[in-house]
Amino acid sequence: MITYISAGLLGLLCLSIPVGIVLFLLGFGIDQFFSPFPLVKGLGNLVWSTSNNATLIAIPFFVLLGEVLVRSGLATRTYAALDRWVSWMPGGLVHANIATATMFSATSGSSVATAATVATVAMPQAEKLGYDPKLFSGAIAAGGTLGIMIPPSINLIVYGFLTQTSIPRLFLAGLVPGIGLALAFVVITMILCMIRPGLGGERRIFPLAQMLKALLELIPIILLFTVIIGTIYKGWATPTEAAAVGVAGAIVIAAAFGGVSLQMFKDSILGTVKITSMIMLVVIGASFLNFTLASAGIGRELQDFLAGLGLTPLMTIFVIVLIYIVLGFFIETLSLMVVTIPIIVPLVVEMGFDPIWFGILMIVLIEMALITPPVGLNLYVVQGARKSGPMSDVMLGTIPYIIAMLAMAMALIAFPQIALWLPDALQ
């Protein structure tokens, strides 16, 4: 049955049908041929119960937060400010790409939005200053993936909703691995540019006065992140309430820098509606698919398959990692999460692993899927911003950063406390 379902999923995706529709169609097919009950009769109730959840209200708020920051021009200011602080390192402006992506990951919650923001601002600089197009664009695509790891992350909210785990603890657990990945990207860039200086372009050192002035422009974004995350961790606000406060704070910051206008509000709201609608269609479609999969007994079949391999729990985790890497080549990341979570996570928990830890490990693997062809969304976002040059440049440029992600995944398996020590310490 697993083979038929996998073939059906890949076949429908190859037809360029929207992912949310694919999940519904696959659910209808499973209900028709494998389920012993007519589940379609309960579709209306399932759609309502899935969407009528207070936790999911945080998604449009965090999307709107990112939209306001991007469309008000704060992205350009942030990039210019970070350029003055990090361009002295081997690699020059490439580090500004990574630093800006990290900064916006801490506010937008979306990898694609983060990559699009940085690519739009940075790409003209690459052409002007003569940077290697592979490394420069690869750093943007990889840096954008941090948007689903560093809190507040929309993907972590979806994971917490589907697994009924604590979203504040997930946010805490993602902080150290997210920052660790950003630092790993910086180190890899420095090593590559020290070996081949031509990759990184000119290193620039700015006067201290300019650096301090630039730091002032970063303070509002840092304060906004602190307010959002701090209110959640202190228990003063739920993630949804903190997201609403974040939107208000973003509007205040945008107004202070003269970035508020009626057109900005229109564009931000329209962008939020489009992104949120896509996410909710995927979540609802996946909920229906998971309902039909459970009825058809796919969970038991997969559990029997893994048990039949005769592997230890640790080796089973490695098999699951391999499954996610392979699926990540072909399935869009959010869809990959919502389709597999109800099947994989119960097996992982039954083997004695922490669901918070596994959520962070899954996010690292999902990040890899964002920059691996043929379905890596960040690759297409960055290529679209380039407007010239082959797609292979972006793909090749991400290879060093994919290696860093694999290393982080192995480190999380070897040392689970990388993800767990912060939520345990602040519990």
Automatic annotation (TrEMBL):
Mode of membrane association: Multi-pass membrane protein
Cellular-component GO terms for this entry: plasma membrane
Molecular function per GO: transmembrane transporter activity
Top-level taxon of the source organism: Bacteria
Bilayer-crossing regions: 7-30, 50-70, 135-158, 170-193, 214-236, 242-265, 277-299, 305-327, 359-382, 394-422
Alphabetical UniProt keywords: Cell inner membrane, Cell membrane, Membrane, Transmembrane, Transmembrane helix, Transport
Annotated ranges, domain TRAP C4-dicarboxylate transport system permease DctM subunit: 9-418
Cellular compartments annotated: Cell inner membrane
Recorded family membership: Belongs to the TRAP transporter large permease family.
Quaternary structure note: The complex comprises the extracytoplasmic solute receptor protein and the two transmembrane proteins.
Function comment: Part of the tripartite ATP-independent periplasmic (TRAP) transport system.
Listed NCBIfam families: dctM (TIGR00786)
Protein known as: TRAP transporter large permease protein
